[in-house]
Amino acid sequence: MRKSRLLLSLLAVLAVLLLAACGGASSPAAPAADAPAEEAAAPAESDAAAPEAEAAAGTAGKFGDMPADAIPYPDPPELDLGGAVIDRLPIDQIVTYKALDSYSEPEWVSELVAAGELPPVEERLPVEPKVVLAGGMPDGIGVYGDVWRDFSACPTAGWFNGAGVTSGWFGIESMTSRYSALVKTGPLFRADQDVEPLPNTAKSWEWSEDGLELTMHLIEGAKWSDGELFT
């Protein structure tokens, strides 16, 4: 009997504890966090379809058609040669190649020819020498002899100082054609165009269609300073 009462007492205590655990005031539920603001609606796609890329429209340039996005560069300044009026001419009216009926040379050179130290002038020149036409000379043909006054745009330093060559390129060597290039760029300001250089040791030239090969036609019979043919 006592065991039954003890068991009932224990069950009653457990029931009280269970009610205390379950029946107590429950903590209020945390308020629901405010829903984040909806993101701004994405901008509507343009109804118009993206235009197709147009081919670059060509614009007429000085040297041919140029693309539309080409950078416009300013024209060069006007050529000023001390107020001199320049009559620009085609290159074939400035220089040509032809044999002349007769040639002239200084008296001291003629003496060397007479002494057998030099061949006659006709044998020293190419078959068709380069001839500067009077039409390309703003002051006409000068008087032979006297003093040649000129200037050099380069320092007086030669290619071979050890041999005493000190006049410098664009000095005496250039003026006397000791170093004769295939073409020349001066006096290009006298030509009616500024793309093609002036002929010199090469009379003419042409490019292959693919632009990878250049053929130059040299003057016939040109010689080195020692008399050997230039080929």
Question: How would you describe this protein?
Answer:
The structure is a single chain. With 231 residues, the protein is of the alpha+beta class. The chain has a domain at 80-142 and 183-231. The protein contains four helices and eight strands; from the N terminus they run αβββααβαββββ. It has helices at 2-23, 107-114, 121-124, 172-175, and strands at 59-61, 64-66, 95-97, 130-132, 183-184, 198-199, 202-207, 214-218. It has a two-stranded antiparallel sheet with strand order 1-2. The chain has a two-stranded antiparallel ribbon with strand order 3-4. The chain has a two-stranded antiparallel ribbon with strand order 5-6. Strand 1 and strand 2 form a beta hairpin.
In short:
This protein is an alpha+beta fold. It is built from four helices and eight strands; from the N terminus they run αβββααβαββββ. It has a domain at 80-142 and 183-231.
SSE layout and pairings?
Blueprint: H1 2-23, E1 59-61, E2 64-66, E3 95-97, H2 107-114, H3 121-124, E4 130-132, H4 172-175, E5 183-184, E6 198-199, E7 202-207, E8 214-218
Antiparallel strand pairs: 1-2, 3-4, 5-6, 7-8
